[in-house]
Specification:
Helices cover 5% and strands 60% of the residues. The chain contains 1 helix and 15 strands, in the order βββββββββαββββββ. With 204 residues, the protein is mostly beta strands. A hairpin with a 6-residue loop joins strand 11 and strand 12. This is Glycolipid-binding domain-containing protein.
Length: 204
């Protein structure tokens, strides 16, 4: 069960945004990721709880940030309920998309798991609903993911396979690179792996 800490920063001006303390695990029915977020001063800033089935589809999502809450799942596309900080109002949404995304590193692992692009086969396109702090407002976006490199690194626990993905925003044309090892993000724009207590899990 990988357990560790990511530091989060603005990918454009590198302003620190806080940290995400996480643990995640694979199982016979899929993968689960749970984390607590803190501000740069160490105050609680929210949480992430994401469960995928064995095909990488989100079967349960719960996000908290700035008093807002989102609960969602893959249902006739993706469906969610967003509740305001007072708890007095809840709005439902449904979009013909494949999965969710957001600021958490969990969503990068989840998208790679869902798409599973093979080396040398080109990019795979997907439609996602993004929820980003501090208000978790939904936004639909289209991305393409291509697996451009796969490298095995020797470790004390056997070879560790690192995958390099090229991710394109199909609306803006912006490109960025994501490096994953199993169910852990090694690096991505705005995300750095600062501490990892146990090795990444390998998806079968």
């Amino acid at each position: 069960m990988p357990r560790g800490r990511y530091s989060l920063h603005d990918p454009h001006d590198h302003t620190p945004l806080g940290e995400e303390h996480f643990h995640c695990a694979t199982g016979p029915s899929g993968w689960r990721y749970v984390s607590q977020l803190t501000t740069p001063s160490g105050d609680h800033a929210g949480s992430v709880d994401l469960t995928l089935d064995d095909l990488g589809r989100p079967i349960r999502l719960e996000l908290h940030a700035g008093g807002w809450q989102v609960r969602g799942a893959a249902l006739e596309g993706v469906t969610w309920v967003r509740t305001d900080p007072t708890g007095a109002h809840a709005t439902e949404g449904n979009v013909p998309a494949h999965a969710f995304t957001g600021a958490s590193p969990a969503f990068l692992v989840a998208t790679a798991r869902l798409l599973r692009p093979a080396p040398g086969t080109g990019a795979v396109r997907t439609r996602l609903v993004a929820f980003t702090p501090p208000v978790l407002a939904p936004r639909t976006l289209d991305q393409s993911w291509a697996l451009v490199n796969r490298t095995a690194h020797p470790t004390d626990n056997g070879p560790l396979t690192a995958d390099e993905y090229q991710v394109n925003d199909l609306e803006t044309g912006e490109q960025h690179t994501v490096h994953l090892a199993g169910d852990v993000v090694l690096s991505a724009p705005g995300i750095e792996l600062e501490d990892l207590e146990t090795p990444p899990s390998a998806f079968t």
